[in-house]
Protein 1
Amino acid sequence: MATKKTAKTTTAKAAAPKAAPAKKAAAPKAAKKPAVKAPETEDLPLDVPAKAPAKKPAKAAAPKAVKAEPAKAPAAKKPAAPKTTRVTFRVRAEVGSKVALAGSFNGWDPADKPMTDKDGTGEFTCTVSLPKGRYEYKYVINGTWCADPECTDWVQNDMGTLNSVKVVD
């Protein structure tokens, strides 16, 4: 009896695309080396030495690249701070006055160097450390800019008045 193959009709279930089966990650297999069998010495004639299994020659290690470092200059010493000299400025004013020192060494800022009358005698002083050089200065007494009456070296300034000059050696 002959059997007839009938065509199957597609159903909704069959029409849906089949998901591909998940592939399992293959674990790396250790490379198997075929075992080298040493020849039996019994089968060889006495005058033929037994051969040892052939070995691959060892790979020569490649030399490691060494980074060439740029030559370092000797550590430069920090420039030493210029040697300074302590200079004391003195001016006489009325006791209780507000006196300050302004000059080329402090940007002409009278608030930067207030002067004090320690003894209450009217002699105001201020000590400043200055490197060698030539400095122009003025006193500001109760808001009035005044040249140093004790200084013999004066120069005219841009305002048409005089600045006192102090040279530090």
Protein 2
Amino acid sequence: MSRLTIYFTSDTHGYLYNTNFADTRPRPLGLLGMQFPKDGDTLIIDGGDTIQGSPLTYFLHEKHRRQIMADVMNARGYDVVTLGNHDFNYGPAWMGEYLHGLHASCLCANVEDLTGTLPIRKWEVRTMASGLKVGLFGITTHWINVWEKKENLQTFRITPPVPAAREAVRALQAAGCDKIIGIYHGGVEKDLETDRTLTSTDENEACRLCEELPIDLLLTGHQHIPFAGKSWHGTHVVQTPCYAKAYVRVDMADDGTFSSCLLTPPEEQTWTEEETAVRQDLESFLDSPVGHLSKDLWPGDRLQTALHGSEIADFFNRVQLWATGADVSCTALPNECRGFSRDVTVRDVVASYIYPNTLCVLNIRGSDLRAALEQCATYFDVDAEGRVRISDSFLKPKEEHYNYDFFAGIEYAFDLARPCGSRVIRMERQGKPIADADEMTLCMCDYRATGAGNFPMWKACTHAKDVLTEISELILQYFAQHETVSVPESCTLQTFLGTKRL
């Protein structure tokens, strides 16, 4: 018989309903389908990225509707939450509406609200019905300082998570806690099976936390890598997938050991009257028309579009060039992209460009562009028989198709028979080769401009300007000014294997 049960969610991104928003077919996902049996020895915990990241959260924010995330979590008896990086995206007022509506404690030891008005604490102690004294603390990735708009962070101080966690653990030890549980909106920097390093940055530091601090259970997120039943240096470690596709149950036995498993929500859900009304209003909003294309734009096969070009990516780049006036543009496709029907609706837009990104225009040189294209070319791997496939580095431990960029405003070619780092064999603009010293402007999303996704060359470039309107909103504005859009039959990328066209 366990003495402690924990239900853990993270990175739900506002996916409350049993839908991926691409259509109305029910699916086994969504927080509204989750029910957590609770007694005096149960804790229900969330790891952040809760109030942004889906067509629902976009709808609520843009239409100035009341948030319902706190209501849903209160109904399920949440005890503790922490903050994720995307919880800052809509600013402190939107975050405050969520936090003030929660019955749960918000623990985030490395986030300080300089106004003193938000209910954010560093740690807390809970005594369970069994008498077990549980110490809990929360922390989040400090890379929020890199990604987030400056105006959204003016009233916050966000510090590195490990020192803040160390201070919290010491306080919990001094309070005489039997078990210490960390809630970390960050992931693992090493493969927990092989010890292989996954990232050289300190964006994710779960392994370091386990190595340096006496934490009994670490609940992680941010990476969207689903796993349970893992341990690192004596700490039990779990993580959920994104979009409320699964949650984790953790049980502690009488001997103090932990076990855990991933559970999937049911496909069928029961909603309150308000939840039903919100869903109906959302679907009506998503199905409202915004414009027309000369043809459908569907995502297609990942490998083939990367090899030969993507019409959807070309369209995103067209919008970015229109919005910025830059010489060149680059964009990526999310792991899950709906695509566009010929008669375009809001659903097509917000379920195809799902991120809250804005645009940055950078001053770059040809050498920067070449380095970025070489990084993109690492997306491909060639086996002994000469077959091209997607590199494991973009598939494991999680899929990262969003870190392969498509470019517009240049013509370029890869030779995949060459080793990585020397695959770019052609790079031209307006019919002329691009030299390393050539200067130009390049627009991209603000996420990529930080160097994220292994593009450090962009971080060193100066900013020409920023466009602070979200890209999904720019796409809607583009259709408002270009009601019918002709899709050209064009491709700026050529891919070869030796001298043979793939």
Protein 3
Amino acid sequence: MFEIVKSDLAGRIGRLYTNHGMVDTPAYVPVMHPVKQTIPGEKLKEMGFQMIITNAYITMKQYGDEAIRRGIHDIVGFDGPIMTDSGGYQVLEYGDLDISPSQMAEFEMGIMTDIPIPLDKPTGFGLPYDVASSYVDRTLQACHDTIQSAKDNGQLWVGPIQGGEHSSLVERSARSLAVYGFQIMALGSPVEFMESYEYYKLACMIAQVRRVLTPSIPLHLFGAGHPITIPLAISLGCDTFDSASYMLYAKEDRYITQDGTRKLSEMRVFPCNCDVCTGYTPAELMSIEKKERTDLLALHNLYAIKLEVDATRQAIYEGRLWEYTLKKARAHPRLFEAVRVLTESHDVLYPGTPRFKEKAIFLFDHTDQYRPEAVEFRRIVSDFRTKKDTLYILPEPKTKPAYLLKRYADIPDDAQVCIYNPYLGIIPLELSDMYPAAHHLDARMRHVPERYDTFGHSLKAFLENNKFTRIHYDYGNAFLSYFLGDMKCTEHFTKI
């Protein structure tokens, strides 16, 4: 059902198999309105979108039994995989619907959607714990009843995870749905988080869910349709995400870019080479009749979203998802706050990060001390033991691997030699050819020792695990002196 081809951090390149074909992930899933859609399914497929999502509740109200006779693929005019939202968004906006979860499940089975979603009770954002808990209970009951009555017909039912900002509810929801046997999970109610610029809380939710789910279960993110959120969501383990943002923004004359949105009336040039942007100037597009302008802007917005998904996928292939995500996180101050979730989620990021990569990792600033490769290397060093009682700590040489350094240093053979790197910590020469000790490129900058707490912790552990009576290092090295300056067994050492 879901095959993982390649991974980096918690991001995965995968293949999702459905009754109507395979979907390459990570994937953006455009929302198609079952009645008012103006961009046809053929155009979406031509642009490279392999799956769409539409609304089963609106379909039922508009078409009734006709939808079951025709099937959802004929109704919306899309012959690829289709996901159907059962009406959760309408519940969030307008309250409970005039239909039961069992009726909705029966309808979704009848229209043969590929990936149906049970009728849930979204928690949204800002609900008191008790109220949110009752919504989670209602959703879990509806999901339990739905999955028990589901037919074995190839449909992949989605378990909608609710709980909002209440992490314990999110975890309970995810664990329960996994026990019920849902093959795909979806994190509900993120739209309100994003509209409130609560990217940090959203990132915490995603990480919490990914901790609970096994890697074999793909994770969908509802309502995430802006390029600035896509790299972070993928890095934390989201495989698919949907949104109607491309059309909603277009209706407001808003133009999606890779780092935000712009008002069309304020633009002078288009920073894009899609068919729309190469065919019009902003002024020309602004002068077109509203309906046509909306559709053209929607097409551009789709191109912009897909470009970001493709760029993030390429970063996974290259093993540079960490670098790419941190670069993109600077698009908005509130988004940059969410980087803290990456630095605190080694347990989520490390399992999917390759132990060895074809390319050297890039190290820019103190944030990179928390990337999975650096954390894991420090853990390996923590197991290093030596019986030597004299330690020499040297700056990292340009030559890699660093064990070549010993040929040029006037150091006794019976001494333990280590080099150091602010991001990776202490590096014994015996381990200096391991990845990434010999496979990294640092920005040449002054490192403020107060910002490198992981270096201090790793150095302390290394010294506690090995009984050195004498430690030699260069007193003129401000970084090392900060950590070693008050140790009685340290002695001045001048490099040759």
